[in-house]
Each structure stands twice: as structure tokens, then as C-alpha cells.
Amino acid sequence: MASFYGFTYHPPKEKRNQPRFELEKNNLDEATKYWLMPFNHNHLRITRIIRSCRILGLEPEALIFHDAVSRAAKQKLGKKVERSLMYWKRAAERPLYLAPEDDKDIGQGKDFLYRFEEEKRMQDKADGEAGN
């Protein structure tokens, strides 16, 4: 997935390290020609990738991929991709039960994702208490 968008994925070498996505500098134009343009259909795919990674428990990868594609898009296209940047940010940061395309920041959204996030919150709380 990362290579299609012109990135190289670097998994963490140690547990305390974060994964990284780096733009392939040696062939930047070729690597980004399929998505780094305004109003491209691949922008919706990027939104889905970010959100799907979070749902699958790959939160660090989702956030770092969001950061990488956002930086590349802002650098090359600036204001021409503000709408896509908004959706990518929503996919990366919003509760999963709220769809990125939903303009409301309230509600329960999809029941299974609401339950998923509640369970995750309870597990994170239990993990935090166990670590004390």
C-alpha cells in the first residue's frame, strides 16, 4: 500500500520506536503521480486506509501515514487539497464511530464501532491501572 503512494514503510526496530513512512526521494514524481494532484480519486482511498488501519488496531501506523500523506500534499499542493486534508484528519483523529464524511461531531454513528471504541477505552484504562 505504501509503495503505491510513493512511500517506504519502516517498521519499528524496537518496541519503543514508532514506525515511519518516508517519501521515495529518488523518484518522487513517478512515485506520487497517481495521487499527488488536486481532486484525485485516490484521496478517498487514503481516507479509507487511515481509518481501516485504526479499526484493525494499527493506530500508530494510521497516524504516521496520515502525517506523511498530509505533509506531502500540503508541500506540493497547498490549499488545493484542503478538503482532502480535512477528511484525512477526521479519519485519523475522530472517534471511529463517526464517519469522516459526516459533518456532525456528535452521535453514536455505527453501533459496532461505538462498542469497539468503548471496549478499547476500557482496555486502555485497565492497562493503565495495571501498569501503576
Please explain how this structure is put together:
The chain is mainly alpha-helical. The protein has helices spanning 28-32, 42-55, 59-77, 82-93, 111-131; strands spanning 7-10, 20-23. The protein is flat.
Notable traits:
two-stranded antiparallel sheet, single chain, mainly alpha, 2 strands, 54% helix, 132 residues
Structural topology:
Blueprint: E1 7-10, E2 20-23, H1 28-32, H2 42-55, H3 59-77, H4 82-93, H5 111-131
Antiparallel strand pairs: 1-2
Helix pairs in contact: 2-3, 2-4, 3-4
Number of E-state strands: 2
Structural class from helices and strands? mainly alpha
Distance between the terminal alpha carbons, to the nearest Å?
A: 38 Å
Low-confidence segments: none
* Helix/strand order, N-terminal first: EEHHHHH
Strand order of the largest sheet: 1-2
Q: Could you describe the largest sheet, including whether it forms a barrel?
A: 2 strands, antiparallel
Q: Given the C-alpha coordinates, what overall shape results?
A: flat
Provide the β-strand percentage band.
5-15%
Number of helices: 5
Alpha-carbon Rg, integer: 16 Å
